[in-house]
Amino acid sequence: MAWSRISSRTSLLNRLKNPEVLLRESRFLPDSLYPSYKFFKASSGCGSNNLMPRCEFTTRPLTKSYDFCSYGSRRLPRIPAFSSQRHYASHASVASTEKKSKKTLLYLTALVFAMVGSSYAAVPLYRRFCQATGYGGTVQRRESVEEKIARHEKDGTMATREIVVQFNADVADGMPWKFVPTQREVRVKPGESALAFYTAENRSLKPITGVSTYNVTPMKAAVYFNKIQCFCFEEQRLLPGEQIDMPVFFYLDPEFETDARMDGINNIILSYTFFKVSEE
Amino acid sequence: MSAGGAFGGNRGLRPVPPEKGIFPLDHLHECDSEKKEYLSCLKTSGHKSEKCRHLSKKYLQCRMEKNLMAKQDLSELGFGKPSGMEASLGD
Lengths: 280, 91
Fold this sequence. Notes:
The structure holds two protein chains of two kinds.
Chain A: H1 2-16, H2 19-23, E1 38-39, E2 53-54, H3 70-75, H4 78-88, H5 90-133, H6 145-155, E3 163-171, E4 177-181, E5 185-188, E6 193-202, E7 208-217, E8 225-229, E9 236-238, E10 243-252, H7 255-258, E11 267-279
Parallel strand pairs in A: 3-11
Antiparallel strand pairs in A: 1-2, 3-5, 4-6, 6-10, 7-9, 7-11, 8-10
Chain B: H1 32-44, H2 53-65, H3 85-89
Helix pairs in contact in B: 1-2
Pfam family, one (chain B): CHCH
Organism (chain B): Hibiscus syriacus (Rose of Sharon)
Keywords (chain B): Disulfide bond
């Protein structure tokens, strides 16, 4: 806080003086030009933190400013010395500031490259992170479904909680298909494979090829949702007016029951969206 | 499509394909009757998958026969030894 006082005083000084005065190297400035700082005492007195310096610029001579508190008067003689010292050291400081600025430039360039590099590296890193943690609804795969089923059958784990799997179907804009789930929901216990259907109908007059993708909500339950077989990620071609049933065969991992994070989850929504690939 | 997901969600990720691949589409509606049976069973049983498992097994078998699904032992897919019922009948 003391430093700020000195620096504010010097900046004010510099604004008031003309350049010739600075070069003069004299310790004492003409009284007429020197502004006097009057310190108004706050309730707790001089030198405390809640002292508010209020600057009053008068042309009173320095010697006559009696109402300075001792703390303030100690500061005053230092100011002219500070300003003269500044241009004594100018030569050496210029060289050092040049060195410093070169260092800063190097540092900043390195920072720019580091940022650009990390933004490129973020893509595979993020993918790996999501695969490992299943964050954001990524469906993980570590062992195949048959292995899981075999393992759970051997263990004889019987699931008790019934989970309602609801189905949702969406079509992208500009896609003249009617795409709905054939059943609204299926009640399944973890560890049981279940079958569900979606119906798609091409309402246009041209054969249209579409591709679908899916998502499971809530996101954290996606880890336990295994799709054994479905109709997604492959182009499906429907002739005009054709209606077709698309099955989904899925399996909910029994480990779903033992996970504490899944305690409140009794509903899972499987959502499919169809996108248009081409139309002839 | 994917609503939410605080951390960017599934935006930059390739979704995981299904384990056994894609069901070829049943353009000729060969297994339609089995499908209808299964769906009506679901409706009557309050959408409980357990009660209609035998029908879904039938549907998958139909698919395998008509070459719409890779042939595989259904017990591997979770349609293994049925619960106590059939075993007691066999006595």
